[in-house]
Amino acid sequence: MTAQDDNQEKKKQKQARKSGVSGGIERERTPITEYTRKVDLEPEVEGWLEKVEKESAQLGTPVQDDTGKTIVDDAQKQDDFKVVLPMTKDEVEKGLHHKVMDSIRWLAEWCIRMVKIFGNKVRYKR
Asked: Which residues contact 114 (CB under 8 A, 6 or more apart)?
């Protein structure tokens, strides 16, 4: 095979890739089309939707599991949460010096990540 034949073969392969033909099998191509349907709502429905969107979501009664333990309650404020890490600050610093294969290293890395995510809402274990 000469260099010219080799170049022609490469051109054929390149053209086949562009056209979607690979190894003699043509790939099926489907155009992507987006269908949207604009719906005009009746005035009563629009007013009702606005009313529902404006109302704040309030629970009538607290949600409890099968044992009777309260899971979700409106009285609980989501703004006043604290993240308590499973390690002390010294343990985190020592854990960062362990090998990557050690689980204590990954727990320390996770603690550092929580500090970065939640900032001043994080408290170390005492």
From this structure: 83, 85, 122
